[in-house]
Automatic annotation (TrEMBL):
Record-annotated FecR protein domain positions: 178-272
Source species, domain of life: Bacteria
Segments forming domain Protein FecR C-terminal: 314-381
Protein name stated in the entry: FecR domain-containing protein
Keyword Transmembrane: yes
Transmembrane regions: 83-101
Cited InterPro entries: FecR, FecR_C, Ferrdict_sens_TM
This protein's UniProt keywords: Membrane, Transmembrane, Transmembrane helix
Amino acid sequence: MSNERLVWLFKRHLDKLTTPEEEQELFRLIDLPENEPVIRQVMQEAWNEFSPQHPPFTPAEGDRMLRNITRERRRSGWTNGRIWIAAASVTVLIAVAAIMFHRTQPVTISPITQVAPTVQDVAPGSNKAVLTLADGSTVTLDSTGQQVIRQGGVAIRQQGGRLQYDNAATTGAPAYNVLATPRGGQFRITLPDGTGVWLNAASSLRYPTAFTGTDRTVELDGEAYFEVAADRRLFHVKARGMEVTVFGTRFNIMAYADEQLVKTTLVEGKVKVAGKTTANILEPGQQARLAPGGELSVVPVNTADELAWKNGWFVFQDADIATVMRQLSRWYNVEVSYEGPVSKELFSGKIGRTLTLSQVLQGLAQSNVHSRMEEGKRIIILP
């Protein structure tokens, strides 16, 4: 029973949910020598949860780090329990805040702890968007808003970073609204049919206030994840020359104007993806890619990587620095320029979307990507 209680308290501590009384109980349990194996196990589980594919250091290196923390804390007179809490917290902090970046040619990168933001810094993106109604009026949305927006007979409810349309029957021609996120913003919307859509930064979705016809059609610019509500009517997404047709399924579409490819990734169900001249049926785990010339191809992908943005991460696999910086520029609302030739090296890794920009840039510097920031709104990549 004590082990179960210890694991429960430890996980609450990592989530910063413990009360002062629970903290004291946790310290007492950790101070018991027989509980050390349990602590190591729960630390390892937490570590694996944050970085199962790209651990920034080996178990041996992790043990050395823990020993160093233990030795340092004992100099300050901490109890064993407080030493283990500090060590565990630092380990998980590194897992969350680390930029586990490496070149495709094997290079050892030291783990990067979270550092204090510089005076000149940029906060990560947040829940914010602009809703444009059919009459052209606009409503600014953010993570704190609680309101009901009336449009004819339609009620649009905002609860923080989410917008929801009442699924009420309407007559006559439907009105069209546009939900647009700025650079540095994201937002979630539930459409009139119950379909859930998560909009990434610098994206917009045009949709009717009611689906009254024989099918359901929306238009996307940018990136969004869809969980389409089951319905006898087909659901269509039009995005920069690609059209995706589904019944009920989960998928992601990336269709930014500054990206070379338009990509649809299927997570669950089945969809038909059409370009100008060809069409393909996707199975879960496949991605359709539409090239500028209209060529449509299908490749297998890791769907978790493709949806990482929705879950608070940037994940890159063999990406050049320009690809990396395009994603960062959208999320932090900054411009990027290059001084000298652009590196052709490819990178793989994982970056937390909750980091400040200065923390991200310091992490990239560990992978030999050097930069400077001007006036908080421009990043210059140095040769």
